[in-house]
Please model this.
Amino acid sequence: MAASDSRNTPHILAIPFPTDDQLAPFLNFSYLLASHGLSITLLTTDPNSPPFQNVMVRAEYAGLNIRLLHMPFPVSPDIPEKSFTLLVYAFRSLADPIERWLQQQTEALPVTCIVSDFYLGWTQTLAAKAKIPRFVIHSTSAFGVCVDNSLWTHLPHLAVRTDDEPFQVPDLAVDLSLCRKRIPWSARLFQKFDPVSEFTRENRLLNLQSHGIVVNTFYDLELLHINKLHETTGKPVWAVGPILQHPMADDHQSENVQRWLDSREPRSVLYVCLSNYALSAVQMTALARGLEELNTPFVWVVDGNEVSDEFEERVRDRALVIQRGEAPQQALVLSHPSVGGFMTRCGWNSALASITTGVPMITWPVEGDQFSNSALVVELLKIGVQVWEGEDGTPSRDRVKSAVERVMGEGEEAQRALELSVVAIKAIKEEEATRQSMEAFAEEIRNIASAELPESHDSETPDTEQSGELTELNVKQGQEV
Model:
């Protein structure tokens, strides 16, 4: 261990969920937490993945106390595509190895608390067994957390008979009417007494027993919903955002895009990036025709051969079509002065990047928190318009054109987005509220460590090799411990 590691340093076991949308903000949050003088053990099923390697390089350069704990996925990761619920269910099989690791920790480096992703509500049970607190971290908006908590607590969607019938979502700071088509699949398909459904609900509700809640948002954006989250859960809430994606060191792909954007007028380019949900052929055709008829310059991130060579040839004087694997990070594109609109699925990472750069959004939510994020962006913040929702059906060419013209013009959405970006940029640059919130959270953990610090006495460290399953990597020292 480094000299700074001691039984007096609070030690956090941080457990992210291994999907891109969850991982990036969680790792950046862990880095920021370590910068407040705390010791972090990051659990990973793939220590060689670029996100983990990136955060470890940054941590080593900054002299921060972060180590990786490798636990191989104990079951076959052969999960059907889009079966996100099954992936959450399968990830629970790490519970026993984590519990054994916690038991092996000694007074030389005791674990003060667990910080884990909200998809890992079952870690609340592990924390209770280990008699340590657990904090839940949400990678969505505070409004989205309130909606999710309400759906799983009250199950209001079970009271309607069809997917189109509206229902009211209780326990929110604002009135919100949804239908089953506008909620996550896991809630939409919930069936009482079904093992996976019941696990999913219990997994979410266990988050309500956490010691506290961390959300990647900021007070000037969502004060109303942050306060409502505290009111409905009775738990302290720390708004620690906006935590944005840290640029990867090998992001050389951005150079060609940067040169193309440099040639365009300010706020004249539409950026189209609809995450990794493939569009149907009919949807692609409608979107392509709408974009082609607009005369608006655009950058379009696509998968495979979703657009024809003929289309690219027709629009090449005013458009740039990029394969997803070659596309630069969203924040780098959105921050360019020539970008004036963003068509997005409205995942929270994308929404935050758009908010902080002052780019109004055209939303097309499909799954998960995208629906509540779109409601926040369009109906509450009024910094975007929704062109369509769900995987079925197709927006008309006229609807695509209307949405783009409304956002790229001088309308309310564009002006509101610029005004909100000033607040967001202030939160990032001055970091006052975010820094105070991060420090308050770090101080909470220090207080827990001080209150539970046992009297000093000698103790031998158990041999971690005996488990045959767990390897803790201290990248800072370049050795296994």
DSSP finds 18 helices and 17 strands in the chain. The two ends are 8 Å apart (CA to CA).
